[in-house]
Amino acid sequence: MTVRFTTSPDGTGIAFEQLGDGPPVVVTGGALSTRYEGLPLARELAGLGLSGVVYDRRGRGGSGDTPPYAPAREDEDLAAVLGAVGGGAACAFGVSSGALIALGAAARTGAAPGRLVLFEPPFTGAVGHPQDPAHAARLADFLDRKRRADAVAYFLGEIIGLPPESVAGVRRSPAWGGLTRIAHTLRYDTTLLGDATLPAGILTAVRVPVLVLSSDASTRLLQDAARAVAEALPCGEHRTVPGAFHQAPAEALAPVVRDFLAA
């Protein structure tokens, strides 16, 4: 694939890649991800006759990062990529906090996707577990003091909920350096999520069909949150797919996306 660029309305350059030549599906990653994490899904989609599009959210990889940050800027970034690859004919696939961006782009921009697929949008406040504002404050403190590794570890352990041994394993992995390089973008994800309650105004403004997915191995909290999002959308439905905690393999996701787009 060849890296291409599009420009968001605030002048930020957004790097993206496209694999395949069928109807485009633009993948928006979650916290601490770059476009490379979306490549397995893009390849699977291309193999099913679709076109998988992955991009770097602002502040990550090959994309720029124009201050000040606001969630609406990320909506515009996604809309710019959608416009570059097919506009209203494209589908947006949002993962975790990336699902919040997909919803925002559909509700608030002129380049809304034709359909949405959301994987575990983390609106846990919808099922009685709002996000503690102390988490965002603690992350900001780590980042203000240039303690990027501590910020990543705090996010994985205290916010995502990984056990200490899993966090320690990530610290020892080859991926750790890449995670700490984009640690500053954790501010963006906590800003996007807020207190994790459902954004009723945004959800009711999304008029396109939406498929909300959850993994059968995720916590009951995340699965219930996914169902709550589907129920709150005017044209939403929920399905469970085989996977692991807060993730599912590309080979399980791609056929579900294909079938949803063909319906």
3D structure, described in words:
The chain is α/β, with parallel strands linked by helices and 263 residues long. The protein folds into two domains: 4-128 and 197-262, Alpha/Beta hydrolase fold, catalytic domain (Rossmann fold), CATH 3.40.50.1820; 133-190, no CATH class. Helices cover 44% and strands 16% of the residues. It contains eleven helices and eight strands. It has helices at residues 39-47, 71-85, 97-108, 133-144, 148-160, 164-172, 176-181, 186-193, 200-205, 220-232, 250-262; strands at 4-7, 13-19, 24-28, 51-55, 91-95, 115-119, 210-215, 236-241. Helix 1 crosses helix 11 (250-262) and helix 4 (133-144) runs antiparallel to helix 8 (186-193). The longest helix has 15 residues, at 71-85. The relative contact order is 0.15.
Could you name the key traits of this structure?
263 residues; alpha/beta; Rossmann fold; 8-stranded mixed beta sheet; 8 strands; AB_hydrolase; AB_hydrolase_fold
